[in-house]
Amino acid sequence: MNMQSPNHPVTFQPQSDNTRLLRDAFGRFATGVTIVTAMSEDGPVGITANSFSSVSLDPPLVLWAPDKGSRRFRYFEQAEHYAIHVLCNEQSSVCHGFAKNAHAFDGLDLEKNEHGVPLIEHCLARFECQRVAAYEGGDHLIVLGRVLRAEMREGDALTFFAGKFGQIAPK
């Protein structure tokens, strides 16, 4: 394997002994940052996720993919209702909080919807969802949800690229 540079990329075949390389390659795709929340037997829970995508406008569908190896997976594996929060650039501390603690709701403006799902305020967008299906996806579960209600506001996006936070501001 050669040292990486613009003229000399690192080329590899993904295998179980080089997952760090694959993770780094995936990290070259800039993503927004989301927090997914749900109600659980242990109270409200949240998890950071960048594996989020819109799927369909009619019907309104989104997907996200929790890691089966996460200690929080059990909360989201069967959640019938959940909310996906797209974070603004001023919410990196919210992201860090949920990266460390499933119950990092202290100090947040919070309400619950009619299904008991905790809703974080002041996000760029929020999608309140009902689970439609789930599919095996290797070490992740691909969760498909119908958007029951959405909210959005103006602001700059919190982004994640190559293991670091940044922001995207509209021109």
Describe the overall structure.
The protein has 171 residues and is mainly beta. Helices cover 13% and strands 43% of the residues. It is built from three helices and twelve strands; from the N terminus they run αβββββαβαββββββ. It has helices at 19-26, 73-77, 92-100, and strands at 31-32, 34-40, 43-49, 52-56, 61-64, 81-86, 110-112, 118-120, 125-137, 140-152, 157-161, 164-168. Strands 3-2-6-9-10-5-4 form a seven-stranded antiparallel beta sheet. It has a three-stranded antiparallel beta sheet with strand order 1-11-12, with no helix packed on it. Strands 7-8 form a two-stranded antiparallel sheet. The longest helix is centred in the middle third of the chain and has 9 residues, at 92-100. The protein is globular, with a radius of gyration of 17 Å. The model has no long low-confidence stretch (mean pLDDT 89).
